[in-house]
Amino acid sequence: MKIPEKIQEKKEPVTIEQAAVQIENVQAAVISKTSKPLSRPGVSSGFSITSFLNKEVKTEVAEDIAIKTDHLPKNHFTDTDLQTEWKIMLKQLQKKNTFVFNAVKTFKLEKKEENKITVLFPSDSAKVEFDKISGEFFNHFRRKVQNYSIEVEYVRDVENLKIEVVTKRKIYEKFIEKNPLLKDLDDLMKFDLT
Prior knowledge:
Layout: H1 5-8, H2 16-30, H3 49-54, H4 79-96, H5 98-104, E1 108-113, E2 116-121, H6 124-145, E3 151-156, H7 158-161, H8 168-178, H9 181-189
Helix pairs in contact: 4-5
């Protein structure tokens, strides 16, 4: 077996002074100084505070862009059509995006007038999630029923927001309203409704 020449050479011991000189040489090689600054002088950032403060306030008239639907079809649709498409959309959402599904599953869509749909929503946070899918749903529905003059109205549903915890006592009280003889039976049997 042949040993390479570099390994065959015997190394001489290094003194402390020689090691210090070698370390200084390495540090000098690593630290490189520039003669010019690294930033580019004279180049502005594009934003000037003085020009911002002196800028005149321009008022622009916002023009509402209305899509003319006079020439598009306005076929009749029923509430059943609306509910069927909404259920299909909910099934698709349940598979595709469960977070949005859980937020919008309590929404109620109702047909109020010939071309008007009312959306009842429980909270503003749920409405934000509904806004993510509403464009897709209503565009699909307009194409499906061939009615392009559908208007959507959003109404906050206060009744849907209440979540009532039903206890045995509340169930019993509802049954007493329907059948008063249960009260007599409770007096006789002393039911435990806790």
